[in-house]
Design goal:
Radius of gyration: 57 Å
Strand content: 25-35%
Helix content: 10-25%
CATH class of the domain at 7-65: Mainly Beta
Structural class: alpha+beta
CATH superfamily of the domain at 7-65: Hormone Receptor, Insulin-like Growth Factor Receptor 1, Chain A, domain 2
Strand order of the largest sheet: 1-2-3
Length: about 240
Amino acid sequence: VHPNVSQGCQGGCATCSDYNGCLSCKPRLFFVLERIGMKQIGVCLSSCPSGYYGTRYPDINKCAKCKADCDTCFTRNFCTKCKSGFYLYSGKCLEKCPDGLEANNHTMECTSIVHCETSEWSPWSPCMKKGKTCGFKRGNEVRFRDIVQHPSAKGNPCPATTESRKCIVQRKRCQKEGKGKKNREEKRKKSSKDESKETRQESKGRAARRQNREQRENNSKTQPKKRKAPNKEQDLAPADTAH
């Protein structure tokens, strides 16, 4: 061992030097060179930093730099995230997406073009004019449909979601809601008044009949019984016989 090499190192180093830092790492750690100004210092890490990918060998595990347009990579030829200004597609960083794909500025990836999709049309609404369904001959009816898939930037835009067409209905008068309601209320009050009047008349009739019955019963109890008048012919018969 060189006199400048120490085995009592810190930070995961197996061997190190005062000038170059880590020279080798403990098992399962990755060795990587970090540049500080004009100087490179060896460090040992549990995983490789951004812009590097890890490779394992029997004698040493190393962190190697990704390609210049790659921010993170799995291997040198397979990028997982691109640097600004590039779009990721199949592990590669491209300045322009291939035909049939579009650039997604949010994820910085090349994605498939998505076209608008809509549902089926709803049935036509009743024929109306100014919010009414009566009192006119010509009106309009409408139908609707929903958007079930919004398009991407290069996708086909969505068509109209409403349609309107002219319609003809049989002319009829509209019953005014206020007037109809007022008539129904008046009929209800009149019916209630008539029923109340009939009830009062029936009550008065029953009271009068009961009073007359009670008066007859009282009169029959207070008046004396009339004696039966004698038969004048019977009383005078003996006197006539004597003559």
